[in-house]
Design brief:
The structure holds 2 protein chains of 2 kinds. Helix content of chain A is 54%, strand content 14%. Chain A contains 14 helices and 9 strands. Chain A has helices at 15-24, 36-46, 54-58, 71-78, 84-87, 102-114, 127-133, 144-154, 169-197, 202-209, 217-227, 237-254, 259-273, 284-289; strands spanning 5-9, 28-32, 49-50, 63-66, 93-96, 118-121, 124-125, 136-141, 158-165. Chain A starts with a strand and ends with a helix. Chain B is 55% helix and 12% strand. By secondary structure, chain B is an alpha/beta fold. Chain B has helices at residues 13-22, 34-44, 52-56, 69-76, 82-85, 100-112, 125-131, 142-152, 167-195, 200-207, 215-225, 235-252, 257-271, 282-287, 301-323, and strands spanning 3-7, 26-30, 47-48, 61-64, 91-94, 116-119, 122-123, 134-139, 156-163. Chain B has a 6-stranded parallel sheet, with helices on both faces. The chains are: A alpha/beta, B alpha/beta.
């Protein structure tokens, strides 16, 4: 198993270290990245090899992993004559780590099936930090057989890997995660804003209320940076807006009502309009302090 | 040992006053309905009085814990009120979740009589009161705080001075603002998960370990999925607390768009008879009115969930067929 041939497509903030963990775990890894320089840097860092196209990287691989920006990027690297699926052989497995829509996951599952390729949608949480440390949480959609086949490849960079249901279920679970995060951040932003405006010491307030029913990961990890105006790190507003857009699209399909999520998605749009889309997603606070 | 008085023996005040007795303090109680007073005296010993003023007469520290601003004014002011009975040099600490405005009002009146005032709303709920592990958020002068804190510790895990009079109430408002936005997000997430045909419990198990984690997710997600709300912190109280937060925000010109929206959602729940439901019932707004889902028949959530799951699977099948 130590010489299983794998391909990793997309060496962004997440993919770069993830592919590194895969290589370190003994997989024979070929990478592809849109910007060639990044692929060359990866090969210098970890060994392995780089290919000219997703199809070329995927050729002969038992497992192909992708981690790109959005639905469109994902289509570009998987479909078409240069796409990963074109290079993949019968019985191989495609695992996508992009946070994308559930419908593209179902679409890719169907396309893969035509070629005798198995597919898993497997978005992750844990951020760049989790990717670097190999401590991601992976939410997987697909069938059990494919899941068993894919688990050993994901283990090198995961803290937890859970099969949530059929194709698309990983993406749907990630959507629930993002909704819960966004609303918690908005609530925390409003709370901190009220504290500051009324003359309280926000740090002392957080210390006091973070032991009870108001506690959250966001309060423990982001309240202080928020009130200190530090947003040059973390998970960008641009990405959160993309993710909430996917949630709202899917909600239109399944009839779920997401009033607060819709409001917050609009707040992120405003942040983008102000040219602040690259700030950490806790920058919702800035809309209150600098409206 | 300190001479104390406790005014208001509701679900919070009753056990809090009991902890004072257990800690060895002398306690005189007053409650609007005398039946509750008798119950308390027969359970904990101590004395009772006919008016707030009479209860407060010889006390070094007086506590109150009542329903809202109006109730608080009734027990604090007037000839029979707490302040009328208090001796100069004593301290009055109010545990009601009330407005910062009424706290400042009482403080002004207390100063005239040489009484030290502290606003000290609590969090931790009925369970926290019964187990004596409340968090107390205090506003007032340091010297009054230092004198009262050792007595308050009888029922508190943490007692913190946050600033001048009113600071305790504003901190409590911040606490409630942080809770409701988060609960609404959790409600939307869970309702969405059910609609999408996911196993919502399994989803919670996975996402509760990361950035979406919260006390509410750890302690309320499963009861929300099961549509259980006959416990906890009642919607009518949360609606009251948000009213206080929004009024305070208006005063200090803070913007609370999410909180304002959610306050309306609570108003809708009150309109359909949800006063006593736990404040995590925000999810009922998302499922209520949707055809044949858990909300239309809250007590039969399970059957509805299975139906929703079947529907969504059918739909996704249709969708993938179309694509082929």
């Amino acid at each position: 198993m130590s010489s299983t041939k794998a391909a990793f497509i997309g060496l962004g903030n997440m993919g770069y270290p993830m592919a590194g963990h895969l290589k370190k775990a003994g997989f024979d890894v070929t990478v592809y990245n849109r910007t060639t320089a990044k692929a060359e840097a990866w090969v210098r860092d970890y060994g392995g090899s780089a290919a000219e196209s997703p199809a070329a990287a995927a050729r002969g691989a038992a497992i192909v992993l992708t981690c790109v920006g959005n639905d469109a990027d994902l289509r570009a690297v998987t479909l078409g004559p240069d796409g990963a699926l074109a290079g993949m052989g019968k019985g191989s497995l495609l695992i996508d780590h992009t946070t994308a829509s559930a419908s593209i996951a179902r679409e890719l599952a169907a396309e893969a099936k035509k070629k005798g390729v198995a597919f898993l949608d497997a978005p992750v949480s844990g951020g760049q930090e989790g990717a670097k440390k190999g401590q991601l949480t992976i939410m997987v959609g697909g069938d059990a057989k494919a899941f068993r086949m894919g688990e050993p490849a994901m283990k090198p960079y995961a803290k937890a890997i859970t099969l949530m249901g059929p194709a698309g279920s990983g993406q749907l679970t990630k959507m629930v995660n993002q909704m819960c995060c966004a609303a918690t951040i908005q609530a925390l932003a409003e709370g901190m804003h009220l504290a500051v405006k009324s003359g309280l010491d926000p740090h002392l307030v957080v210390e006091t209320i973070s032991k009870g029913a108001a506690q959250s990961w966001q309060m423990d990890n982001r309240a202080r940076t928020m009130v200190d105006g530090k947003f040059d790190f973390g998970f960008a507003c641009d990405w959160m807006r993309k993710d909430l857009g996917i949630c709202l699209d899917e909600a239109r399909n399944n009839g779920a009502q997401l009033p607060l999520t819709a409001l917050i998605e609009d707040f992120y749009a405003r942040i983008q309009d102000r040219g602040e889309g690259r700030l950490d997603n806790t920058a919702l606070y800035r809309l209150l302090t600098n409206p | 040992m300190t001479n104390t008085a406790f005014i208001g023996l509701g679900v919070m005040g009753f056990p809090m006053a009991g902890h004072l007795v257990k800690a060895g303090h002398r306690v005189t109680v007053y409650n609007r309905s005398p039946k509750r007073t008798q119950e308390w005296v027969s359970k904990h010993g101590g004395k009772s009085a006919k008016t707030p003023a009479a209860a407060a007469k010889d006390a070094d520290v007086v506590f109150s814990c009542v329903g809202n601003d109006d109730h608080l004014r009734q027990v604090a002011f007037g000839n029979d009120g707490i302040l009328a009975g208090m001796k100069s040099g004593a301290i009055y600490c109010d545990h009601t979740t009330a407005s910062a405005g009424v706290a400042r009002e009482i403080d002004a009146e207390a100063k005239k009589r040489g009484v030290g005032f502290l606003d000290g709303p609590v969090s931790g709920g009925q369970a926290g009161a019964e187990n004596g592990v409340l968090t107390v958020m205090v506003g007032g002068e340091r010297r009054h705080f230092d004198a009262a804190a050792p007595v308050i510790k009888a029922y508190a895990r943490a007692v913190t001075l946050l600033g001048p009079v009113g600071a305790g109430q504003v901190t409590k408002a911040v606490n409630q603002v942080c809770i409701v936005g988060l609960v609404q997000g959790l409600a939307e997430g869970l309702a969405f998960a059910v609609r999408a045909g996911l196993d919502a419990r399994k989803v919670v198990g996975v996402i509760a370990k990361g950035a979406a984690q919260s006390w509410q997710m750890d302690n309320r997600a499963l009861t929300m999925i099961d549509d259980k709300f006959d416990f906890g912190f009642a919607t009518k109280w949360m609606h009251k607390d948000l009213g206080i937060a929004l009024a305070e925000a208006k005063k200090c010109r803070a913007h609370l768009p999410g909180t304002a929206l959610i306050n309306q959602f609570y108003a809708q729940l009150l309109a359909v008879g949800g006063e006593r439901w736990d404040s995590s019932c925000l999810i009922r707004n998302l499922t209520r009115g949707a055809k044949a889902t858990s909300a239309a028949k809250p007590r039969r959530a399970k059957a509805a969930k299975t139906a929703a799951k079947k529907r969504s699977i059918k739909r996704s099948k249709k969708r993938s067929k179309k694509r082929r």
